[in-house]
Amino acid sequence: MLAPMAPHFATELWSKFQSCPNRLGTPVMWDKSVLEQTWPELDEDYPLDIIVK
After folding, report:
1. Vertex 10, ends 31 and 25: CA angle to 5°?
2. Which of 30, 31, 52, 28 is nearest to 40 (CA)?
3. Which three-class secondary structure string do you get for the chain?
4. pTM of the model
5. CA dihedral (21, 27, 32, 35) positive or negative
6. Could you report the per-residue pLDDT of 7-43, keeping only the tens digit for each?
7. Cα dist from 23 to 5, 8, 14, 27, whole Å
8. Number of separate domains in the chain
9. Cα separation, 15 vs 7, whole angstroms
């Protein structure tokens, strides 16, 4: 989510995340750069109550 606004900073962060030994997250393509990752998908059926006061 940071890559479009700060691509150089996001790339540096991503390179550090890639070097971590215990990585979680199966939808993440660890062999690709941060700029080649997919965007999160929205679950339209998620039951979320919105309360506006």
Report:
1. 45
2. 28
3. CCCCCCHHHHHHHHHHHHCCCCCCCCCCCCCCCHHHCCCCCCCCCCCCCCCCC
4. 0.55
5. negative
6. 888 888 888 888 887 777 667 888 888 888 888 888 8
7. 25, 22, 12, 12
8. 1
9. 12
Round to whole Å and give the CA distance between 10 and 37.
12
* The residue type at 51: I
Range of the domain at 6: 1-52
One-letter amino acid at 30 equals W
Euclidean distance between CA atoms 52 and 31, whole angstroms: 42
Of 6, 20, 7, 45, give the one whose Cα is nearest residue 36: 7
